[in-house]
Design a protein that fits this description.
- The chain has 204 residues and is mainly α.
- It has one domain.
- 60% of the residues lie in helices and 0% in strands.
- The protein has 7 helices and no strands.
- It has helices spanning 9-27, 31-37, 48-72, 86-97, 106-117, 122-148, 154-174.
- Helix 1 runs antiparallel to helix 3 (48-72), helix 4 (86-97) packs antiparallel against helix 5 and helix 4 (86-97) packs antiparallel against helix 7.
Length: 204
């Protein structure tokens, strides 16, 4: 399967830079915990309020960067494919669930990476963009919860969001409808291809 060998910095650079800034921002919150695990003493732990605001800001950066990058990645086919690919859907679900292993924004970045890696496959493009749209939507839903956690309201909202997130992913495995454009709760953030437009199979 043909994959792009180089990244067009002018086209993809801004989106990648914004994503990197968001990831570095959230990783900065890991340092006090890492130092504590290494046995360091007198470490000033980040307050819950600061941590919530830090994660909310990082989430906004990552979502913005992925949307910008997603628009720069042209789809490889003009029509939305309808065949069911259970293996690919299962892989995308597992990639999305890795975020619960402590990998920040893995639910967004791994499907995005998979989409870029298989940029010439129409079915992969469709399913990856579909999953990306859902993951970006969930992240946007989480941002108010992170801000509201300062008032303790988000402590209820975020667990409910996690449960809903997992339930929708399980639905994707057992009750997928071929040709369904979006997962439940998706905000249609990712622009879908124009069915009348002929697209190239190569990334410039």
């Amino acid at each position: 399967m043909k994959t792009p060998n180089i990244i067009n910095v002018r086209r993809y650079g801004p989106g990648l830079a914004i994503i990197l800034a968001g990831v570095l921002l959230v990783l900065s919150s890991y340092w006090p915990f890492l130092l504590l695990l290494l046995g360091q003493s007198n470490i000033q732990v980040i307050s819950p309020i600061t941590l919530s605001l830090l994660w909310a800001g990082a989430a906004m950066l990552v979502v913005s960067g992925v949307v910008l990058l997603g628009r720069a990645l042209p789809p490889s086919a003009s029509a939305i494919p309808t065949p069911d690919n259970k293996k690919l859907r299962r892989r995308l679900v597992l990639l999305s669930l890795t975020t619960y292993l402590g990998l920040p924004f893995a639910n967004i970045l791994l499907p995005l990476w998979w989409q870029y890696r298989h940029a010439t496959c129409a079915e992969t493009q469709f399913l990856c963009r579909r999953m990306l749209d859902f993951q970006l939507s969930v992240t946007l839903y989480a941002i108010p919860g992170l801000f509201l956690s300062v008032l303790l309201v988000g402590l209820l909202w975020l667990p409910l969001l996690v449960i809903g997130h997992i339930l929708v992913l399980l639905r994707e495995l057992v009750a997928y409808r071929p040709g369904e454009e979006a997962l439940p709760g998706s905000l249609h953030i990712i622009t879908w291809p124009d069915t009348d437009t002929d697209t190239s199979t190569d990334l410039p």
